[in-house]
């Protein structure tokens, strides 16, 4: 089953073509990575997937529907954690979980989700008092409280220390094991190599390579996704 299908996606801001003819598909239960430097078009792509931006041209289908037209319906089935998303500083962790759960018709038990992501000990803490790792765990829990079929994660581990990053990898691995489809935007190549079944490398709004980390390494004659990425970057100069 195809969960996401993107064909010839274009999105420009004035003369800046943020996304310039991007096409890819993501299957059910797959973890798919979007990689590339700042300004490559990764965030604009996931914003189009999430219904937050309307494409200039091309087609986007998420769970068989157009997210620009069916955003409200898809919000019941898709969990989204965006890099810039923030909560009010004084909102407590448990209050945030309860509030987000109320947005869904058939949410998971928010208390169980709270425990699952090890947020129980900080349930009474305000968002503004949380560490970076705790904030990221909360954002992930909020994206999952609706029991989504698809989760979109934009730079989930940016700013986390190595221990918190590894803990987050474990959480994403748990999602994969449960059969949840994941789209992961990341700057970290070791993260993508560890977690993703396939990746697409974007540069200047276009996909310059896609495939499994092993396939990209083989295609470039390198030993890892990081080396493959650097080789592709060199080709683009």
From TrEMBL:
Gene3D superfamilies, per database record: P-loop containing nucleotide triphosphate hydrolases (3.40.50.300)
Domain ABC transporter: 4-229
UniProt keyword list: Antibiotic resistance, ATP-binding, Cell membrane, Membrane, Nucleotide-binding, Translocase, Transport
Membrane topology reported for the UniProt record: Peripheral membrane protein
GO biological process, alphabetically ordered: response to antibiotic
Ranges that cross the membrane: none
Pfam families listed in its UniProt record: ABC_tran
Main location: membrane
GO molecular function: ATP binding; ATP hydrolysis activity
GO cellular component annotations of the record: plasma membrane
CDD domains with a match to the protein in the record: ABC_DR_subfamily_A
Compartments in which it is found: Cell membrane
SUPFAM superfamilies for this protein: P-loop containing nucleoside triphosphate hydrolases
Name of protein: ABC transporter ATP-binding protein
Organism name: [Actinomadura] parvosata subsp. kistnae
């Amino acid at each position: 089953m195809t969960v996401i299908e993107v064909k010839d996606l274009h999105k420009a801001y004035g003369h800046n073509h943020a996304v310039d003819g991007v096409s890819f598909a993501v299957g059910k239960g797959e973890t798919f990575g979007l990689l590339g430097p700042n300004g490559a078009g990764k965030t604009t792509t996931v914003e189009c997937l999430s219904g937050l931006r309307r494409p200039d041209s091309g087609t986007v289908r998420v769970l068989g529907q157009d997210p620009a037209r069916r955003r409200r319906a898809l919000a019941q089935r898709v969990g989204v954690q965006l890099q810039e998303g923030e909560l009010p500083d004084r909102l407590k962790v448990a209050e945030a979980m309860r509030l987000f759960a109320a947005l869904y018709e058939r949410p998971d038990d928010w208390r169980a989700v709270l425990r699952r992501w090890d947020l129980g000990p900080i349930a009474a803490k305000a968002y503004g008092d949380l560490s970076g790792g705790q904030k990221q765990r909360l954002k992930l829990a909020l994206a999952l409280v609706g029991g989504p079929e698809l989760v979109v994660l934009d730079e989930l581990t940016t700013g986390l220390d190595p221990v918190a990053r590894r803990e987050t990898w474990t959480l994403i691995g748990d999602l994969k094991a449960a059969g949840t489809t994941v789209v992961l935007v990341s700057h970290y190549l070791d993260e993508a190599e560890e977690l993703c079944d396939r990746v697409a490398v974007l540069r200047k709004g276009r996909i310059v390579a896609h495939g499994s980390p092993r396939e990209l390494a083989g295609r470039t004659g390198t030993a890892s996704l990081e080396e493959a990425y650097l080789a592709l970057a060199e080709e683009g100069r």
